[in-house]
Amino acid sequence: MSRRPTDVDESLESVVATSDVVICCGSGGVGKTTTAAVIAMHAAQQGRRAVVVTIDPARRLADALGLDGLTNEPALVEGPWPGEMWAMMLDTKSTFDDLVRRYSADDDQADQILSNSFYLNISGSLSGTQEYMASEKLYELAVEGDFDLVVVDTPPTRNALDFLEAPQRLAKFLDHRLYRVLTTPNRGIVKAVNVAAQTLMRSIAKVVGADVIGDAIAFFGAFDGMEKGFAERATEVDRLLSEQSTAFVLVASPHSDTMAEATYFAGELARLDIAVRALVVNRMQPSFGEGTSVGARLRAEALEGTELGDLYRSLAESRLLAEGEHQHLRGLADDVAPAPVVGVAVQPFEVSDLDTLMQLGEVLFDPVSLLTSDTERGSDGGPAVEPAGDPR
Q1: Which end of the chain is flanked by fewer CB atoms within 10 Å, N or C?
Q2: For 12-179+226-288+325-372, which CATH class?
Q3: Best CA proximity match to 185, nearest among 213, 234, 225, 214
């Protein structure tokens, strides 16, 4: 993968407008799924045909979009926009099944694999399978689908890294000598097992069952010849993730633990030579206009014993919280510079339907809120991020 240069004047608006793929990543519970949905909705409002893919099986997103549920196939979301918005939820097994059918030499080979007990067990639960199938679905929608923009809501941070690296790991595994031994008919696992190994296999069979061993052998035998298609596809997925038109948007909340997780993720993206194109920080404490907590506290002391003094004391406490959040944000904003930083203030509503999702979209894409960590800074050198939708 290669790091893509970021224009210092870029905004979240321009990132979305110039991208074919937007990958929302970050830890769990920071509003990542909702942010992904808002980005897809904004693209539809701009006249584009967008689809949002979520890994989260919760119904909350489906409810907010006015859908009965989400499946592995894109569903149209009706709304007051000139473009189109579609949504879907990844089904790991269905996606794996589709790949098997795609790369099987014929229907008999596909049926043999799809009905294999070992395959049925690993297709939905094997470690790394979900992440690879998520990247596969991304490629299918972005390259083979008729969409202008694909927005992906990735798993939480650690699993998101698996999502990014899954194509390369699969390609390496398929090229590994052990895999070739397992799938080559004339030198397959049955013939490769010598007397000593047979003793080991019998011991393993006592634990997991002889049927499991037999099913695994049958699975690898049936899979023979399909690895080229899987390997080529993995290479194409990896290439898609590194293209200029693919943007990574890091989503966080202003708390120290989630900031630490986001900082870690930004560092891992840098290790992979991937640039963060935008940082969205949800649920920030409003600062309620210009001024500092110190100024508000001094006013409260001057008006001690009055109702106005009590109000200034509350204002001082609110601003102190906001200043602490900005302090947490400072290092992360510098790490992703010159990417734009969008601070979204806590809103007086929860996203529960399409109307509230649209309200959040108005806040997220408010041009006033799009500040860069390079060009607008506080007096102490830290990023001056004013939360979007800040009550005045």
Answers
A1: C
A2: alpha beta
A3: 225
